[in-house]
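Module 6 notes. Inverse folding takes a fixed backbone as the condition and produces residue identities as the prediction. Think of it as a translation problem where the source language is geometry and the target language is the twenty amino acids. Below is one complete input and output pair. Work through it position by position during the lab.
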């Protein structure tokens, strides 16, 4: 449930790039030694890929929530776990890594979010050019090489494909001779994959251009590498601030990777200030209309199309959004219409007429990025929108929540009154909050429920003297303001069983209410 209609204020540290991590993990299969990967995003796709490596015989050890150590020295060729492979798009990267390491491969067709056909014809074209025999049969991809090793070749991609470019890079790293990829994709995560492999001993040049040259090497050695920040995660928070209004500081970003997003937001009237490794976004919530067309990098990313469409729903005038990568990425438009948006879809084009505001409704997340879009819509809507999410979208929102929590109690919070500190939510990391909520439900609203054991409250508490029910003086004015009376009634019950003392501000507040006859002494 989302309580929207309020501006966003805070600071958020961006996590590692999903699209880079899901290619780097399969590439680690070719490393003969221990590699340590840092700044890994905490998402389900990463967990499943690491389990696939374990199924192949790799040793995987988490050093921290965002750092993992992988040792593939003892890996032997075997069929990877089918149930895990079919759930994620990145399963096709094992075609390149298994061919490079073993000379043969068996994987499933790509899974993941359903927003269009994901052909792998360009992947097959690249592997075939390097000497592999590839066959797609019964939902599986079978590949092998006559002499147990790929050979360098010149590969021209018929269309710009991020997945095919990365897969061919992985396969060519251990191939004999020199491989050249023409009409290659130029996304930042392709450069990151090349940098990872180069740090392990590969010889890859030209990543980030449309012509990439790979000189095959005999082996890759271990090492340490840190994944780049996630361009799409940062863009999602930027768009959320633009749509809902407020001021948000994003840290651990590469501003150059966000230029295509920043340019569109500036066209819409949003202030974007770039720092060395940070971006400040400021918006008053009044946006101008604009036209957006998704294209391969450095164009506007397709993974940001649903999010910016939500902002355009609240802009003045009519905007046109054209999807230039996938053919079925507008399923979320129907969900936005339930919240009051005025948008129509015609093929690969969406025509969006700006409205004054959105209202709460029960909506569903159709895919990962659509889940982020309906969350942004909920932040802008009056009322309480519900979001029914798929498993992948739930994982994305779990990651976003973790990012907010890691940045401190004020991160990604809505400004309400004198304090904008993030309040603990019921059923979130605090069993005491749950008990208090059940006990005081008739008199205390959920957002007025506090606990001395809640980690969010402990971090935000101003007086640092914790007590059961102490709210750090937030209700100091309740003797003069009847609207917060329920908060003090809750304190009155909780203070009968103090634990560790109560802050002076709360004592003053409760004494004033008792004198005014608004609560029992």
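Target side of the pair, the amino acids:
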């Amino acid at each position: 449930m989302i309580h929207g209609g309020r501006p966003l204020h805070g600071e958020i540290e961006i996590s590692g790039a999903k699209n880079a991590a899901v290619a780097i993990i399969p590439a680690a299969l070719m490393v003969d030694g221990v590699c340590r990967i840092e700044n890994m995003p905490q998402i389900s796709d990463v967990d499943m890929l690491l389990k696939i490596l374990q199924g192949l015989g790799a040793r995987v050890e988490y050093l921290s929530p965002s750092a993992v150590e992988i040792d593939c020295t003892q890996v032997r060729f075997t069929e990877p776990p089918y149930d895990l492979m079919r759930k994620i798009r990145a399963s096709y990267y094992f075609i390149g890594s298994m061919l490079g390491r073993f000379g043969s491969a068996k994987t499933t067709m790509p899974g993941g979010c359903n927003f269009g056909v994901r052909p792998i014809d360009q992947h097959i074209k690249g592997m075939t050019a390097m000497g592999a025999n590839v066959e797609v049969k019964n939902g599986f991809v079978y590949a092998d090489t006559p002499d147990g090793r790929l050979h360098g070749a010149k590969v021209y991609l018929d269309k710009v494909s991020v997945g095919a470019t990365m897969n061919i890079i992985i396969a060519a790293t251990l191939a004999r001779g020199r491989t050249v990829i023409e009409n290659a994709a130029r996304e930042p995560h392709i450069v990151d994959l090349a940098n990872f492999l180069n740090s392990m001993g590969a010889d890859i040049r030209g990543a980030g251009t449309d012509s990439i040259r790979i000189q095959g090497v005999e082996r890759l050695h271990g090492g340490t590498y840190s994944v780049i920040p996630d361009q799409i995660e940062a863009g999602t928070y930027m768009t959320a601030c633009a749509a809902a209004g407020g001021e948000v500081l994003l840290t651990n970003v590469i501003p150059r990777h966000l230029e295509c997003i920043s340019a569109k937001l500036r066209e819409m009237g949003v202030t974007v200030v770039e720092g060395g490794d940070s971006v400040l976004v400021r918006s008053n919530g009044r946006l101008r209309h604009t036209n957006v067309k998704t294209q391969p990098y450095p164009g506007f990313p397709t993974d940001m199309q649903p999010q910016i469409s939500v902002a355009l729903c609240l802009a003045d005038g009519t905007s046109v959004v054209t999807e230039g990568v996938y053919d079925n990425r507008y399923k979320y438009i129907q969900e936005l219409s339930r919240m009051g948006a005025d948008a129509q879809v015609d093929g690969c084009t969406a025509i969006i007429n700006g409205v004054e505001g959105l209202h709460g409704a029960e909506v569903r997340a159709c895919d990962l990025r659509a889940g982020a879009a309906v969350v942004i819509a909920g932040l802008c809507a009056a009322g309480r929108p519900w979001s029914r999410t798929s498993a992948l979208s739930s994982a994305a929102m779990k990651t976003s929540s973790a990012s907010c929590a890691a940045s401190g109690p004020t991160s990604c919070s809505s400004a309400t009154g004198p304090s904008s500190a993030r309040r603990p939510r019921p059923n979130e990391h605090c069993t005491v909050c749950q008990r208090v909520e059940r006990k005081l439900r008739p008199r205390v609203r959920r957002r007025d429920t506090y606990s001395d054991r809640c980690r969010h409250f402990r971090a935000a508490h101003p007086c640092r003297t914790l007590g059961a029910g102490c709210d750090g003086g937030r209700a100091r004015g309740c003797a003069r303001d009847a609207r917060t009376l329920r908060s003090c009634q809750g304190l009155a019950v909780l203070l009968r069983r103090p634990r560790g003392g109560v802050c002076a501000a709360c004592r003053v507040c409760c004494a004033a209410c008792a004198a005014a006859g608004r609560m029992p002494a």
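Reference fact for the lab report: The two ends are 36 Å apart (CA to CA).
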